[in-house]
Write a structure and sequence with these properties.
Elements: H1 2-23, E1 26-39, H2 62-78, E2 91-97, H3 100-107, E3 117-121, E4 131-137, E5 141-149, E6 153-154, H4 159-168, E7 185-186, E8 191-198, E9 201-209, H5 217-241, E10 247-252, H6 260-266, E11 268-269, E12 281-282, H7 285-290, E13 296-298, E14 301-303, E15 306-311, E16 323-329, E17 362-369
Parallel strand pairs: 1-2, 9-10, 11-12
Antiparallel strand pairs: 1-17, 2-4, 3-4, 5-8, 6-7, 8-9, 10-15, 12-15, 13-14, 16-17
Domain Endonuclease/exonuclease/phosphatase: 30-154, 181-368
Signal peptide: 1-21
Protein name: Endonuclease/Exonuclease/phosphatase family protein
Length: 371
């Protein structure tokens, strides 16, 4: 009889605890990254945009540009809505953006205009004329500072020049090194650092588009490793100011989670329980890559180049302030090629169709308990 009463009391207590847990409410924000792949307008400008003009090789007309904007807006409006159905991403980093004008057209699209996205963008020295940027919902995120931090990398540098470049890495991240001659510089995308208040909490976001694999993965890897060292330096500078700094670094890294740039130079961890210090970085996309997921394909091999990582304070288990919940890849059927040689690949622009991108977007959720 006593055993029966004990079991009954236990069941009641368990039911009460479950009820309390179910009553907890959380504030949820989606943070995303999307390589918009060649988001060019039709206006001839000083950058290298000849391919993306009405008379260029892509026959990039006004009608195609408008469709591209519409396609990008649709994707942005839907990212993360499986778990956060009432809102598109609060923060979304972007890459392969020609200029601020295309972003202004994008945020005015009817599918997302009500979200009232603000724009943080700088022109970068990239030889293709493409930049990174951050869009943010003004209602939830208030930028307090932002800057573009250039990446100085050089080809065919002598041993002496390489040693000088190494010394320059100890300087401030945004100081231009007095290093090799300008004609040896490889012009690539800057790294964008945005600091702001997310519902009253300070968050730092770094948006990246690291150097490509042009010339081969092995030959070009030192460039991405240099980009990773710059990224690590930015993170450490923020942690030095505030040991509990919540830093998110996102982008198209042109490397997988397993490459030296990510695993060694940034030191990204596979598991949350490997995080020991606030400067440690967690990469939820490494496990996804190990499970066979992909954000892009090349020669029928999938990989995850698009990643969102963050420092240990965002990975803590209490939800009294914003913490990481989970991550995802947005790869709905309409974003996937259904026929032909590239069946299963992301549906990109082609001769007869204005597609989306050669990358799938990625996202994470940040949540905290609502008081």
């Amino acid at each position: 009889m006593r055993i029966s009463r004990f079991i009954a009391v236990f069941i009641v207590l368990f039911a009460i605890q479950a009820s309390v847990a179910q009553q907890k409410k959380f504030i949820v924000h989606t943070v995303a990254f999307y390589n918009l792949e060649n988001l060019f307008d039709t206006i001839n400008q000083s950058n290298n945009d000849e391919e993306w003009l009405p008379k260029g090789s892509q026959n990039w007309t006004g009608a195609k540009y408008k469709q591209k904007i519409k396609n990008m807006a649709r994707v942005i409006s839907e990212i993360g809505t499986s778990e956060n159905p009432n809102n598109s991403p609060t923060l979304i980093g972007g890459a392969e953006i020609e200029n601020r004008g295309v972003l202004e057209d994008l945020v005015k699209d009817p599918q997302i205009i009500r979200k009232d996205y603000g724009i943080v963008h700088f022109d970068s020295p990239d030889k293709r004329g493409i930049d990174v940027a951050l869009l943010y919902q003004k209602k939830y995120f208030k930028p307090t500072s932002y800057k573009n931090i250039p990446l100085y990398i050089y080809s065919n540098a002598t041993d002496k020049e390489k040693e000088k470049e190494k010394e320059d890495k100890d300087d401030e991240a945004d100081d231009k090194p007095a290093a090799p001659t300008a004609d040896k510089r490889v012009y690539t995308r800057d790294q964008l650092l945005v600091t702001g208040m997310l519902d009253g909490e300070e968050i730092h976001v770094i948006v990246n588009h690291w150097p490509s694999r042009s010339g081969g993965e092995k030959k070009s890897s030192p460039f991405r490793e240099a980009a990773a060292r710059l990224n690590r330096k930015i993170i450490d500078s923020l942690i030095q100011i505030n040991p509990d700094a919540k830093v998110i670094t996102m982008g198209d890294l042109n490397d997988g989670p397993y490459n030296k740039s990510v695993k060694v130079e940034i030191g990204a961890k596979l598991k949350r329980d490997q995080l020991k210090e606030s400067r440690d970085v967690y990469n939820p996309f490494e496990q996804m890559q190990r499970e066979g997921n992909a954000t892009l394909f090349y020669r029928d091999a999938g990989d995850i180049f698009d990643q969102i990582m963050f420092t240990e304070p965002l990975a803590r288990k209490d939800f009294s302030s914003f913490r990481y919940w989970k991550a995802g890849i947005y790869n709905k059927p309409y974003l996937i090629t259904t026929t032909g040689q590239y069946k299963g690949y992301p549906l990109r622009h082609g001769a007869n169709e204005v597609g989306y991108s050669d990358h799938f977007p990625v996202y994470i959720y940040l949540i905290k308990e609502s008081k």
